[in-house]
TrEMBL record:
Pfam families linked: GST_C_2 (PF13410), GST_N_2 (PF13409)
Active site, renumbered: 75 (nucleophile), 200 (proton donor/acceptor)
Protein's name in the database: Glutathione S-transferase family protein
GST C-terminal domain segment(s): 177-303
Lineage: Bacteria, Bacillati, Cyanobacteriota, Cyanophyceae, Leptolyngbyales
Residues annotated as binding glutathione: 108, 134-137, 152-153
Keyword Heme included in the entry's annotation: no
Record keywords, A-Z: Transferase
Source organism, top-level taxon: Bacteria
The keyword Transferase is assigned to this record: yes
Organism: Leptolyngbya iicbica LK
Length: 347
């Protein structure tokens, strides 16, 4: 009986090496466009370019219904503007325009098919002819002058905090009070670098050294925050501030996205004794839960960041009902305040 002929083939080792080489080369090219880095492979986030303000004596006076807030529900930078808008009660003053990332085209598309613009780059071109910069969210858009007022989230939330108070349903809430600004700014600077942008520095790192450095700084900072929250309800004491608003969107996405996709896996948010109840406390503030869309967050990250998840499989993720669990933070803070008051009276 004749033996079956064995077809010649490349050795499996060569196939693996070839596939690895091709994929790593493609990965580096895609990452260079998605997330620019320095010579050490550390992610460097480009700066926002539109930095105007809303003021009564300026080019963009505060008016109800004049402006639009353009957001992507999965974006943490846009999320902080949504939280501020909700806390201040500006939902009827500044309507939303929503966009979603296109996995094939690589930019934001408007959700409303009847919109004047199909994509966010087209809107930016309307604001500034020949614009070649990044077309990012959030955007504070002026419908009268048809331009981008501001696309820096850290500045937009300050505008939402004060500029529209005459129209807000919660005008007395000051998230950036004068007496706490130094502490707020100090926390914001540290949290932006190590946490807000830190998770991206982990996920977008293009070298082992850059990744490990970012990861170490991220969790060292989370440890410090957790210790701080052991003795006070919020980052700056007993009052909710913009420091908390800026931290929350990263915490909301941490276990569902950053822990796995961005390799921030030393510890989960739910493993922290104080940070996890604190995050639930913020989630359960009036209006905040309505800004949180965990399904969209998972879809936008896992479905659109192809270099990090080439298979496109979207994990089920942790149970979102956990965000509604009682946090008891107000009880702890009241208890601490009573103890401090007792000590002062009897010292």
């Amino acid at each position: 009986m004749a033996r079956p002929k064995i077809k010649a083939s490349l050795p499996p080792g060569l196939i693996v090496q070839l596939g690895k080489t091709v994929w790593q080369t493609m990965w580096q090219v895609m990452m260079s466009r998605l997330a620019p880095s320095d010579d050490q492979g550390a992610y460097t986030r480009p700066s926002s370019e539109f930095r105007h303000v809303v003021s009564a004596d300026g080019d963009y006076p505060p008016e109800s219904g004049r402006y639009r807030l353009i957001v992507g529900m999965g974006c943490p930078w846009a999320h902080r503007t949504l939280v501020t808008r909700a806390l201040k009660g500006l939902e009827n003053v500044i309507p939303l325009w929503r966009v979603s990332p296109s996995p094939n085209e690589g930019f934001w598309l408007f959700d409303n098919p009847g919109s004047e613009w199909r994509s966010l780059p087209e809107l930016y071109q309307t604001a500034q002819a020949g614009y070649s910069g990044r077309s990012t969210v959030p955007v504070l858009w002026d419908t009268q002058t048809r331009t981008v007022v501001n696309n820096e989230s850290a500045e937009i939330i300050k505008l939402l905090n004060t500029a529209f108070n005459e129209f807000a349903t919660n005008p007395d809430l000051d998230l950036y009070p004068v007496d706490l600004r130094e502490a707020i700014d100090r926390w914001n600077d540290r949290i932006y670098h190590a946490v807000n942008n830190g998770v991206y520095r982990c996920g977008f790192a293009r070298s082992q050294t850059a990744y490990e450095s970012a990861c170490q700084e991220l969790f060292d900072t989370l440890d410090v925050i957790d210790q701080q929250l052991a003795t006070q309800r919020y980052l700056c004491g007993d009052r909710l501030t913009l420091a908390d608003v800026r931290l929350f969107p990263t915490l909301f996405r941490f276990d569902a996205v950053y822990h796995g996709l961005f390799k921030c896996d030393r510890q989960r948010l739910r493993d922290y004794a104080h940070l996890w109840p604190y995050a639930r406390d913020l989630y359960q503030q009036p209006g905040v839960a309505a800004t949180c869309d965990l399904d969209t967050v998972r879809r936008d990250y896992y479905g659109n960041l192809f270099p990090l998840n080439p298979g496109g499989i979207i994990p089920v993720g942790p149970n979102p009902k956990a965000w509604k669990a009682h946090h008891q933070r107000h009880l702890i803070w009241n208890s601490n305040s009573q103890v401090d008051s007792f000590r002062k009276q009897n010292s």
